[in-house]
């Protein structure tokens, strides 16, 4: 891969993480698939807002929608995304532990 492709991939990932709602969605999906209504309730946003953010995450290639009858289940597009999130949280905590004083990866920031 060339540097331009790497830059584009990291920019998409960074854009996804630049919004706290999208970050919460990605962190929620680390533990397994989720349904929009459940994710909206868990994160505390309206279904419309959640839908807009899921659309963005699909566009970034980070989540996929799996049709289930009239519903859709969302999951990370690749399990390595969850691992990358865990690694990134660990790195941030290693560089600046005060960022997340409790150091609880699941509830960080």
UniProtKB/TrEMBL annotation:
Keywords: Plasmid. SMART domains: HTH_ARSR (SM00418). Residues 1-96 form the HTH arsR-type domain. Gene3D superfamilies: Winged helix-like DNA-binding domain superfamily/Winged helix DNA-binding domain (1.10.10.10). Coiled coil: none annotated. It comes from the Bacteria. InterPro entries: ArsR-like_HTH, HTH_ArsR_DNA-bd_dom, HTH_Metal-responsive_Reg, WH-like_DNA-bd_sf, WH_DNA-bd_sf. Transmembrane segments: none annotated. It holds the Pfam family HTH_5. This is Winged helix-turn-helix transcriptional regulator.
């Amino acid at each position: 891969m060339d540097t331009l492709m790497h830059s584009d991939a990291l920019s998409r990932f960074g854009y996804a993480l630049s919004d706290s709602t999208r970050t919460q969605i990605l962190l929620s999906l680390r533990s397994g698939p989720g349904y929009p209504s459940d994710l909206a309730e868990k994160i505390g946003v309206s279904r419309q807002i959640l839908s807009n953010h899921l659309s963005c995450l699909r566009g970034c290639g980070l989540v996929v929608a799996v049709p289930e009858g009239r519903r859709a289940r969302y999951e990370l597009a690749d399990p390595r995304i969850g691992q990358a999130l865990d690694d990134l949280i660990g790195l941030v905590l290693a560089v600046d532990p005060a960022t997340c004083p409790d150091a609880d990866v699941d509830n960080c920031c």
